[in-house]
Amino acid sequence: MMICMPRLITTYIFKEMTGPFLLTAVVLSVTILLGKVLKLVELFLTQGVGIKYIFLFVASMLPSFLIYTLPASFLVAVLIACTRLSSDNEVIALKSSGISLAAVIKPVFLLATIVYVVTLLTNLYLYPWGNQNFKRLLFEVATTRATAGIDEKTFYDQFQDVIVYVDHIPPQGGELEGVFISKQTEDGQSEIVVAKRGVFVSSPEDLSVVLKLEDGTIHRKSPSEETYHMVNFSGYNLELGLRKGFAGKKSRSKGQRELYVRELIERVKEFERTGGPADSLRIDLHKRFALPAVVFVFALIGVPLGMQKVRAARSTGFGLAIGVLLIYYILSKSIETMGDNGVLNPVVAAWGSDIILAALGLYILSRAAREKDMAVAAAIERTLSAVCARIGILARSRK
Q1: Which of 37-41, 179-183, 300-304 has the weakest average pLDDT?
Q2: Which pLDDT score, from 0 to 100, does residue 91 have?
Q3: Considering only CA atoms, which of 246, 182, 179, 177 is closest in space to residue 209?
């Protein structure tokens, strides 16, 4: 029986954490998603976006939530499980049976490893994919709205610096007949393009909409030279830009959040060659690995905090989790800001909050192993209660 005891304890504590972890991950992800629901509903109701696009939008946004909700859910699960063991005096029973603190830490680090791998893969692959896909979906929706809004024998001005007139559109759609275009060139000149046929072609990869024209003429008058130019063509590709607000922000180059690790490294090297500021890119590169690793820091902090003597396991667990997450967020943002401003090395800026909290966790864990009560949980609980009371007083004073 003694041989199987550590395995039973590992299984028992692991199950105690699994339920709260999954529940918290779902609740946090749904709560964050609710903030985006109004925009998705607006797309569905007012812009004619189909259900398929709504699901694709949600799938694209989820990775950007999960990289934060998974570590936070792990911390909540650890604290709830450990505070419950403490409140039910199961920690005392374990100690009286000669079972050390390592028996409690083992299943915690087992779950931490699983969450770390999932979060790391999400951060390295799903996070940039989701940002790229979300941008592409916005472009597809805007392009569909723009091209579908063209009616025959009607002037259409939903493209930047371009007015389109189509004489005839076949009922089945596709090729346009009798195309008249008035556009403003980059140098401020007016240009008229007349073509017998035309067809819209969109490219989500580089976020461009091209109107391919056939058998037409380009008319241009230069006021400065007082000359008139006319050019005949058999084929001409006219690139169109969507109006601001029609497709949101348009950028052909990938944003920092849309880059995979390999692309981030290449861009850092490119900035180093050209002398551009690369600190922000280096911080983002290291943060892709530092953020998932915070689960091990939360394990070091969560176990000793949760095993202190508490009154109400569930409420104290949530309160401690909020306090630790708030400290981590403030510390992380402060150190990253110093890194962006050049005060700290980018590597230190990315890993600094993990290192500081890991040192704090090891200190708390060593004191818990020596059974020295620091009353940290009670202090955080009192602080949160005072903050909530202060918020309540301010709310009542404004009424």
Answers
A1: 37-41
A2: 64
A3: 246
